[in-house]
Amino acid sequence: MAEVDASVTRDSGPSLAARLAQRREVGAMLAVLVLLLLGGLVRSDVFLSTNNMLGIVRNTAITAIIGYGMTLLMVSGEFDLSVGSLMALSAALVATLYTGGLSISFVVLVVFLLAALHGLFQGLLITKLGLPSLIVTIGTLTLLRGLTLVILGGQTASITDDMYPQLLFYIGGILDVSGVLPVVGQFPIQIVWTLALMGVGYYVLNKTAFGYRSMFTGGNQESAQRTGIKTDHVKIINFMLVALLAAFAGMGQLAFTQAVSPSTGQGVELIVIASVVIGGTNLFGGEGSIPGTFLGALIFALTQNILVLAGLGVRLFQVFTGIFIIAAVLIEVLSRDLRIEYFTEGYLQPLRRIGTDTEGFFEYVDHDVQRIDEPLVFAAVGTVVWTVITLVLMMVVNAVLGWEFSLLIVSAGIEAIGTLPLVAFMLMAGLILLTTVMLHASAKAIGTRGDFDRSLQCVIYSFAPTVLLFVPVLLFGWYFVLPVVYAAVAVIALPSIYLLYRSTRVLHGFDSRKAAMAVGATVVLWGLVAMYTITQLGA
Predict the structure, then answer these.
(1) Model confidence over 66-110: pLDDT tens digits?
(2) Range scoring the smallest mean pLDDT among 102-116, 363-377, 499-513
(3) Which residue numbers delimit the Yip1 domain (predicted)?
(4) Do 278 and 160 sit in the same domain of this protein?
(5) What domain range is 413 assigned to?
(6) For the chain, what is the mean pLDDT?
């Protein structure tokens, strides 16, 4: 009997790097690191100071504290848009009832009770009556905002220093630690609550039966019900938890600022949800990360701080908020199947085949690519590539040579990080959509049987050279003469037109003459659009 070789290679499983890359918080961690580097480049002397760092963490408090409850709620498959209004109402009730003569402990208990009842009410409407959480929480958002306006009488309510209660101080006051830590001086107590509640939230979600039931409920409610989990109870409890945390955050904000106005908390609900999703919580339920939620809140706080240090105030913060909300949804959708192959197999390999075997590549598309998801990945990655190249070159050249970049609302400053990706996305989406419409109309007039998806595939893959768009964009932004910019555009357009001709022949089944007619008509239409646009801009 032959001896068996005992030196069998063991599969040690994924490497540490692979396991880390699979964590849902990785994207948020990378974003925080990038923002820290940017802050150091903008104003390292101020940004890296102890007081500024403490201020950034304190600015995460409202978003993070509410976000911990929102994480549990979204893990169970629901969400709450009324948290910002509830936060404002809680602060307004504490300010008015306490200054009206009631004891602070009684007022705080009453507000917590009302918040719990609010969460219970929403949970019952959604679970027992089957109403969608979107509609219910939009309704309660408006209702609570109106109640806040009525309670405050349209005015700002404040608590003076001589009336400032000790209990409120422990919720969100500023502790003087200059005697112990002279470098720090003043320490916001909200930081302690933010970190402590993160630990509690992590334990509840990952170490308790309730956390597992929440994940099971959001992942597959029907299966959870068949195993005996009372999914309605899980969701109701989570609605109550997020309401209680929103009330607590409102009290903390009142304690810190000693004032509350009718506009307090406006937009907080969107930032909270975006922070939760950016931090790794599945938008559709079943998975979540409490530390990730803190990182998501930190991203918003860092962004706002960097904008202020860059001399932009908060003018662009709403723009960034919108970008982050869209990014949060995209991250969530893509993260379910996000792989490095999107760059290698989805972009680099098609790009290489287009350059080396154009006819063979389009024949492969004709036979094997029936949907448009692969072409869309190709277009998206190409847009990201030329955007990143543009940003890097713009800032490096500005730092080394001092060439100030200016392209509409894009400049060489920190705001370029937010605006250039938007410009790139709009430019590429517009070019692809208009060209596809023109090509498909021309092909239909000639007599193709191909559908709109075929035309879209033709255009997206033929636009492979548009990754070089960073050249005319930079030339235009650095005030090069327009003929040079137009020449750069022509250099990119000519190979795209050639590829469009080759792809139209294959994917629409045209002979050389018909393909040339379709592409020629598309070029003529584009020429008319370009002439009209230049005329209007010149006027």
Answers:
(1) 999 999 999 999 989 999 999 999 999 999 999 988 999 999 999
(2) 363-377
(3) 374-532
(4) yes
(5) 341-538
(6) 85
b/e burial code for range 159-197 (CB count within 10 A of at least 16 → b): beeeeebebbeebbbeeeeeeeeeeeeebbbbbebbeeb
Q: What is the pTM of this model?
A: 0.69
> What DSSP line would sit under 1-45, residue for residue?
-PPPP--PPP---S-HHHHHHHSTTHHHHHHHHHHHHHHHHHHHH
Residue 8 lies in a domain: no
Cα→Cα distances 427→319, 424, 430, Å: 18, 5, 5
pLDDT at residue 449, rounded to an integer:
80
Contact 29, 295 (CB under 8 A): yes
Q: Which of 334, 528, 374, 526 is nearest to 437 (CA)?
A: 526
The model's pLDDT over 375-413, given as tens digits with 9 standing for 90+, comes to 888 888 888 888 888 888 887 887 788 787 877 667 666
| Single-letter code of the amino acid located at 459 | V
Question: Tokens in use for 534?
Answer: 């230049």
Residue with tokens 């070789």: 5
Q: Are residues 438 and 348 in the same domain?
A: yes
Query: Residue 348 gets which letter from DSSP?
Result: I
Q: How far apart are CA 120 and CA 239, in angstroms?
A: 7
Q: Is 408 left (phi over 0), alpha (psi -120 to 50) or beta?
A: left
Residue 537's pLDDT band (boundaries 50, 70, 90)? Answer: low
Question: Tokens standing for 116?
Answer: 């719990």
pLDDT tens digits for range 266-309: 889 988 998 898 888 888 888 889 999 999 999 888 888 887 77
Residues 225 and 316 in one domain: yes
| CA 514/CA 401 separation, integer angstroms | 50
Residue 306 lies in a domain: yes
Cα 425 to Cα 381: distance, rounded to the nearest angstrom: 11
> What is the three-class DSSP state of 86?
helix
Are 299 and 408 members of one domain?
A: no
Whether residues 233 and 377 fall in one domain:
no
Considering the domain boundaries, does residue 483 fall inside one? yes
Q: Which of 310, 335, 360 is the last residue of a domain?
A: 335
CA 374 to chain centre: 23
